[in-house]
Amino acid sequence: MVATAATSAFFPFTSSPDSSDSKSKKLGSGSTYLGGIKSKPSASSGSLQVKANAQAPPKINGTTVVTTPVEGFKNEDAVSSSSPRTFINQLPDWSMLLAAITTIFLAAEKQWMMLDWKPKRPDMLIDPFGMGRIVQDGLVFRQNFSIRSYEIGADRTASIETLMNHLQETAINHCRSAGLLGEGFGATPEMCKKNLIWVVARMQVVVDRYPTWGDVVQVDTWVSASGKNAMRRDWLVSDSKTGEILTRASSLWVMMNKVTRRLSKIPEEVRGEIEPYFINSDPVVAEDSRKLVKLDDNTAEYVHKGLAPKWSDLDVNQHVNNVKYIGWILESAPLSILESHELCSMTLEYRRECGRDSVVQSLTAVSDNGANLGEIECQHLLRLEDGSEVVRGRTRWRPKYAKSFGNMGQIPAESA
What is the DSSP-derived secondary structure letter of residue 114? Predict the structure, then answer.
């Protein structure tokens, strides 16, 4: 009776009184075995046949007791009646829908936490996932950079190459943020149609102080007109916490046809694209009008030959990146100056591009040996093996002071 009541509670069916008595007798006599063997119906009982996969029921005082409902009932003759249709069992399964909604809300919350991320330390990068922003009426682009451990040199300060990479990165991001980035790298849509690219012709950089590991620098950049066929771009690098000016840079850019590799005038269509972003301002670095000296084998004091570009030194325009030239210039700088002085200003004139098959020579001459407050001035030349000039340069070096970069024997306390 216990088994009948349990099964009827879950699987109601209609049976005659005789069949009920017959099944009750069989259960009581122990003739029915529930260990996975079918119970054969008698002629006088109904047509119900039972399959069970449950374990053998326990016995208490010799009496068989069923403690759990029998699972897997099936009418082999397919004549068992279906469950009655009620409001409850006609409802859809809401579990999958609720799980999907929960997943969506959790993902949205995670994204919101990332957008609303706040730094836990003041020296951490304020906008680690951003690419800068437009400020000052949409004419100045601003981007922050955190000085990484792999960007500092032997002096525990950022290298000049690191600073130049920051300048180059903000320039290209400025073009993209202004919507002037076409299919080319730093080229407007009209420039892409005419196979034109920007190339730097002159660069002046003044470094007042080098940032150290963990510092966050703020780089502002903007563009101005320079004559009829050139554009000037200026940069101002400052400490994001104190506002102290660290580096100032000014550059002159011209257009070149990337097919013929010759300089080109600025077409009117291109001028119409870039002129709305020009600022009428003076250069942040006063122009050094002194002529750069051309060195040769007789006037150069230090020569480093056999400098060849690697594949990683090339940019998307298939010529050597501008920052690489600075590293090549320093290859011929005397070690005594590198150890005792730091680069404080630099003027470069780019004469021609350098390709992946080029082999370059670096020449340096010391022109002012510390007569002015211990500062040293050097003249530089990068040339190809056939004598063709690539870059002319002039650098100025100031003595290194311990207060500029802290104790050389340990990491600065602020960066630890």
Answer: H
Say if CB 364 and CB 374 are below 8 A apart. no
97 vs 155, which has greater pLDDT?
155
Q: Which residues contact 254 (CB under 8 A, 6 or more apart)?
A: 198, 199, 201, 229, 230, 231, 263
Residue type at 212?
Answer: T
Residue 35 scores a pLDDT above 90:
no
* DSSP secondary structure, 126-175, as one string: S-TT---EEETTTTEEEEEEEPPGGGB-TTSBB-HHHHHHHHHHHHHHHH
User: Cα separation of 342 and 217, whole Å?
Assistant: 19
DSSP 352-396: S---TT--EEEEEEEEEEEEETTEEEEEEEEEETTS-EEEEEEEE
Active site residues: 317, 319, 354
Nearest to 123 by CA among 240, 218, 211, 246: 240
Asked if residues 207 and 398 have their Cβ atoms less than 8 Å apart, the reply is no
pTM: 0.65
Question: 303 CB contacts (<8 Å, ≥6 apart)?
Answer: 297, 332, 361, 362, 363, 364
pLDDT for 395 beyond 90: yes
Query: CA dist 341 to 9, 108, 396, 406, Å?
Result: 94, 53, 9, 15
